[in-house]
């Protein structure tokens, strides 16, 4: 039976209408408008008449904006520590969990709960855990490890990213673990059996069979988690509250502050587009780089 | 020779089994130690939520406080300024209407993309996928202005409406409809059914597992949403649960035990939901990405 071409066009757009209405008003229009805004200087409080076109002024100003540049660097630091570390840990955990262990479901639950829990709540908990005076971690270091000079987790410039990084690793492992477990269970047992006959050790099997075969999953996770980390807001916003905040902020925290703290809508829009270009660039680089290490 | 070999084989088989059992046990123990470490921050949160105001950072640290103060929860839940009872109501309101709208619009769109022929199908689908790359921070400023103009700023609908369009949900449901046989449609067409009837009566009921997975995903992301809540909701009476935790956390009074009671209250419903729908959670998450 040969179908008529495009026979459903009218019906199809009726089906798509609800999604398209929201898509056009709350996605497409805002994207275009924000692009226009990024070339203007506009304080929202001055009303629409206050919009001034300034060309590339916002982007030029950004190159001398110390705080935004620091935020870009911080965002990269978080992405380049959290993503590899959490993925590596998740892979090891998933590898062990996919072999014979007891209480698999209960264990999976424990690793997964931080991922689904409210980030605001968890960030507040971590801020308290790392508290410098009598925080549980410093109490442990002082009384069990007998450390003499306790780390100043929030005031020491060299250390003050560690609480945030720890929190982010802790909350992202659950997701990566689930994805890895699904992917590992698809690897055929016969490959490992063949390697056993050849006398391969556990480490060799892991490095030569497991790692290459799950590389598409690793690639997917790196992309997804990188993008997520570049959009980081809640955890950093909560944890830097009340401390030397600016030193640790991320791009989205800056964008939020410039937009809804200072009402500099033009400048904040320009910053948001820089964020988009960075995310796009990183994603493209990874797609280009995957040829070297991803085996399909 | 024969019987002796059998005995030897049996012995080796059993010791092999024992060895396997011991390895499994050892792995379980190692993983359990890790899992307990993973749970410690949450246990500390719960323990602190039952302490007195000065006990939270008291020395020596106690996991079980001398007097267990459930009264912290009473305070947080019935606070005259921002009672968690109302915050729960607000968050549930947002989450429920987000879920209903998202499932409805995405089911319709997913069906159209999977089972209908229409002009512009491929281009439209590519366009939807392409906008996924654009971070929501780009769109939040114009959205803020739009909602201010049409009077949705400072209402829950400012959080609900954007969730009625979800590329992830459309994509997931498109896959689901794709996997359903076309014969179902052809048979219904012969019976003279329109697409509306086919979708509603024949195919929609078959996508239930995918819908439940999406529901669960939408529930977590809606429940934990923070950025759009602080941008769009101004009145304390409209606050979500996340904002409530932030309110205690940032308050001048620094009542750590109340903050932890608020945090525990925010986390508990998600954990309960997860335990009761673990299967759907895992399936949903394995088939799509989510959370910032």
Descriptive account of the structure:
- The complex is a heterodimer of chains A (296) and B (292).
- Chain A has helices at residues 9-37, 57-63, 66-98, 104-116, 119-129, 136-143, 162-184, 189-197, 202-213, 215-230, 234-239, 251-261, 265-293; strands spanning 40-41, 52-53.
- Chain A has 296 residues and is mainly alpha-helical.
- Chain A folds into 2 domains: 1-31, no CATH class; 58-293, Orthogonal Bundle (MetI-like fold).
- Chain A has a two-stranded antiparallel ribbon.
- Chain A is globular, with a radius of gyration of 24 Å.
- Helix content of chain B is 72%, strand content 0%.
- In chain B, α1 packs antiparallel against α13 (256-276).
- At the A-B interface, α1, α3, α4, α5 and α6 of A face α1, α3, α4, α5 and α9 of B.
Core attributes:
heterodimer, A: 296 residues, mainly alpha, MetI-like fold, 2 domains, two-stranded antiparallel sheet, 13 helices, 2 strands, B: 292 residues, flat
Coarse shape of chain B: flat
Gyration radius from CA atoms of chain B, angstroms:
26 Å
Distance between the termini of chain B: 68 Å
- Give me the number of helical elements of chain A: 13
The CATH topology label of the largest domain in chain A is MetI-like fold
Approximately how much beta-strand content do the residues of chain B carry? under 5%
How many domains make up the 3D coordinates of chain A? 2
Structural class of chain B: mainly alpha
Number of strand elements of chain A: 2
Largest interface: A-B, 97 and 98 residues
The side-by-side strand order for the widest beta sheet of chain A comes to 1-2
How many helical stretches of chain B? 14
Strand content of chain A: under 5%
> What is the CATH H-level superfamily of the largest domain in chain A?
MetI-like
CATH architecture of the largest domain in chain A: Orthogonal Bundle
């Amino acid at each position: 039976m040969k179908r008529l071409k495009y026979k459903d066009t009218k019906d199809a757009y009726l089906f798509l209408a609800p999604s398209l209405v929201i898509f056009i008003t709350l996605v497409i229009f805002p994207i275009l408008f924000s692009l226009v805004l990024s070339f203007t200087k506009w304080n929202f409080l001055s009303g629409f008449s206050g919009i001034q076109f300034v060309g590339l002024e916002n982007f030029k100003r950004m190159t001398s904006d110390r705080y935004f540049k620091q935020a870009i660097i911080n965002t990269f630091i978080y992405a380049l520590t959290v993503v590899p570390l959490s993925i590596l840990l998740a892979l090891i955990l998933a590898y062990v969990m996919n072999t014979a262990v007891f209480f698999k479901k209960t264990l999976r639950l424990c690793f997964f709960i931080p991922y689904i829990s409210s980030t605001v709540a968890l960030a507040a908990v971590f801020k308290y855990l790392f508290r410098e005076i009598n925080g549980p971690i410093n109490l442990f270091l002082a009384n069990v490890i007998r450390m003499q000079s306790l780390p100043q987790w929030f005031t020491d410039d060299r250390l003050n990213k560690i609480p945030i990084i720890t929190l982010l690793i802790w909350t992202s492992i659950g997701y990566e673990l689930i994805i890895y477990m699904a992917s590992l269970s698809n690897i055929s047992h016969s490959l490992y059996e063949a390697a056993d006959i050849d006398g391969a050790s556990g480490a060799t099997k892991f490095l030569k069979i497991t790692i290459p075969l799950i590389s598409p999953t690793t690639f997917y996770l790196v992309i997804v988690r990188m993008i997520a980390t570049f959009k980081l807001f809640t955890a950093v916003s909560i944890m830097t509250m009340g401390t030397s905040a600016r030193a640790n902020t991320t791009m989205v925290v800056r964008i939020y502050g410039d937009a809804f703290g200072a009402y500099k809508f033009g400048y904040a829009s320009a910053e948001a587009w820089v964020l988009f270009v960075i995310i796009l660039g990183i994603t493209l680089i990874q797609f280009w780089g995957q040829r070297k290490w991803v085996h399909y | 020779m024969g019987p002796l070999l059998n005995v030897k084989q049996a012995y080796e088989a059993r010791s092999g089994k024992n060895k396997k059992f011991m390895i499994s046990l050892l792995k379980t123990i190692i993983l359990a130690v890790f899992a307990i470490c993973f749970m410690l921050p949450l246990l500390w949160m719960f323990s602190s939520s039952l302490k007195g105001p000065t006990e939270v950072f008291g020395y020596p640290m106690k996991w079980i406080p001398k007097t267990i103060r459930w009264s912290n929860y009473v305070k947080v839940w019935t606070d005259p300024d921002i009672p968690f009872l109302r915050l729960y109501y607000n968050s549930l309101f947002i989450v429920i209407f987000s879920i209903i709208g998202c499932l409805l619009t995405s089911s319709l769109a997913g069906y159209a993309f999977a089972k209908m022929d229409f002009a512009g199908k491929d281009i439209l689908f590519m366009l939807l996928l392409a906008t996924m790359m654009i971070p929501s921070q780009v769109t939040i400023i114009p959205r803020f202005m739009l909602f201010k103009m049409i009077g949705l700023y400072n209402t829950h609908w400012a959080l609900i409406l954007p969730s009625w369009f979800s590329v992830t949900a459309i994509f997931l449901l498109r896959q689901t409809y794709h996997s359903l046989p076309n014969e179902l449609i052809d048979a219904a067409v012969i019976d003279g059914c329109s697409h509306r009837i086919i979708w509603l009566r024949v195919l929609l009921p078959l996508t239930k597992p995918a819908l439940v997975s999406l529901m669960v995903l939408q529930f977590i992301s809606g429940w934990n949403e923070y950025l759009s809540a602080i941008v769009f909701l101004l009145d304390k009476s409209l606050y979500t649960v996340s904002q409530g935790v932030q309110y205690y956390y940032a308050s001048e009074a620094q009542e750590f035990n109340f903050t932890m009671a608020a945090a525990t209250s925010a986390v508990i419903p998600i954990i309960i939901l997860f335990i009761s729908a673990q299967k759907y959670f895992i399936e949903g998450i394995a088939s799509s990405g989510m959370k910032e």
